[in-house]
């Protein structure tokens, strides 16, 4: 016969300490969001096409701008015939109108407008070109063995005087930019005096002046410049 031993307090389970109830927690289902596929980058071929189109458009725009500038420039310039008429009208107020028109008419088409100031600039340029031609002629003649010693000395003096004229013309051009009529008249008066001094050198040497035609035209142009300075 088996014995049933009662449980002692040391081995009896503590029934008063209960485990917490088991809770079942359901995991949330993951949500899958479907989006459109990302755009693929352009291939090199498409990039080249876009670059070529951009280059072509830039060139076309540049060409159109050049055409517009050329059209404006052409419209702002006188035709040679109209410019010649405008120059002749201004030159009427000078003492040597025919010389003024002849020496200025060829330059007029380069100016957007023709008035007393621009014709004055043309006359100063004509004076400079005529003085350079006179100086070259004087240098050639002074080197010739057939020229008399007195005439050769006068020619060399005139060469130096023509060189001084360029300084006076430079000052006259600057004065034109400021519309300084007083300085213009003074510079052209000094240039005219140089031409007279050249003639005087030949009279001192009792020699014929081979530069007479140059000096005469230069004196006349200087008078035209002085008259034009009174119109600005």
Mean of pLDDT: 80
Give the N-terminus to C-terminus distance in angstroms: 155 Å
Alpha carbon gyration radius: 50 Å
Helices, by number, come to: 7
The CATH topology of the domain at 80-229 comes to: Butyryl-CoA Dehydrogenase, subunit A, domain 3
Main pleated sheet: none
List keywords for this structure.
232 residues; 7 helices; Butyryl-CoA Dehydrogenase, subunit A, domain 3; mainly alpha
Summarize the structure.
The protein has 232 residues and is mostly helical. It has a domain at 80-229: Invertase/pectin methylesterase inhibitor family protein (Butyryl-CoA Dehydrogenase, subunit A, domain 3). The protein has helices at 44-76, 80-91, 97-104, 116-142, 149-177, 181-204, 212-229.
Q: Could you please describe the fold and organization of this structure?
A:
- The protein contains seven helices and no strands.
- The longest helix is centred in the first third of the chain and has 33 residues, at 44-76.
- Helix 4 (116-142) packs antiparallel against helix 5 (149-177) and helix 4 (116-142) runs antiparallel to helix 7 (212-229).
- With 232 residues, the chain is an all-alpha fold.
- The radius of gyration is 50 Å and the shape is elongated.
Topology:
Blueprint: H1 44-76, H2 80-91, H3 97-104, H4 116-142, H5 149-177, H6 181-204, H7 212-229
Helix pairs in contact: 2-3, 4-5, 4-7, 5-6, 6-7
